[in-house]
Amino acid sequence: MVTKPTLHTCISPALLHLYDLNNAIVVIIDVFRATSTIASALKNGAMAVIPVDTVPKAISISEQIGGIAAGERDGKIADGLSHGNSPLEYSPEFIGGKNLVLTTTNGTRLLYMALENGADTIITGSFPNLSAVCDYLLEQKKNVVLGCAGWKDRYNIEDTLFAGAVISRVKEAFTIHCDSSVTASLLYEQQKDRLLEFAPSLTHYHRLVDRFGLIEDIRFCLTPDVANVLPVYSEGKLLKYPFSAQ
Amino acid sequence: MVTKPTLHTCISPALLHLYDLNNAIVVIIDVFRATSTIASALKNGAMAVIPVDTVPKAISISEQIGGIAAGERDGKIADGLSHGNSPLEYSPEFIGGKNLVLTTTNGTRLLYMALENGADTIITGSFPNLSAVCDYLLEQKKNVVLGCAGWKDRYNIEDTLFAGAVISRVKEAFTIHCDSSVTASLLYEQQKDRLLEFAPSLTHYHRLVDRFGLIEDIRFCLTPDVANVLPVYSEGKLLKYPFSAQ
Question: What is the mean pLDDT of residues A100-108?
Answer without folding.
Answer: 91
